[in-house]
Amino acid sequence: MSRHHHKDRLTLNEIHDLLDDIDQETVTVAINPPHEEPDVNTDCDSDASDDEVTCNPDHLPRRILSAEVNSIANEEPLEENEDTNQDLESPSTSAEPPKKHYVQHPNNELTKLKEDIKNPVDCIKLFWTDEWIEELCEQSKLYASQKSLPSDHVTPEKLKVFITVLVISGYNKLPSRRLYWSESPDVFNQLISESIRRDAFEQIMR
Description:
Elements: E1 10-11, H1 12-21, E2 27-31, H2 62-65, E3 68-73, H3 82-89, H4 108-116, H5 120-125, H6 130-146, H7 156-171, H8 190-195, H9 198-205
GO molecular function: sequence-specific DNA binding
Domain PiggyBac transposable element-derived protein: 119-206
Protein name: PiggyBac transposable element-derived protein domain-containing protein
């Protein structure tokens, strides 16, 4: 019998000695969380710097190594036999849950939607509805009147072009949006410049 057998709590070193004394017993070891003082920094993974040690279970910090552990030694050793090895190597498949089979039912609304979408514009209209554009136009004019700003360019059609320019500027970025109307060939955007005048765009932006 080990000299530490009757102790309730053991240090890691004592556990190491205990395991050395045991021949065939199975021992369950649990490391208790270390007692931390209020001012202790617990964010460090180890005593070394983060550059020296990163997620290394073989290099635990001192506060963990000095923590107490609980151990339970089985009274009877686990005997190895052919049945045990067979159970470990080839677990029974009889307990496996039945596989689920999913059946996709036809969606008439989705099928009709796919038939109605002929081009990217049809797809965009699903999100930029006429009702939404009208509400955006009305609220923009209301804001312009409150700020004493001109709103003659705030129309549903101009708003659609304005939002399109915002989308284009999301993936075709320039240091300034004004450059889309620049005459410089390295930044000029023909699609934008022919769709809306720069003054009209800036007025809607305000």
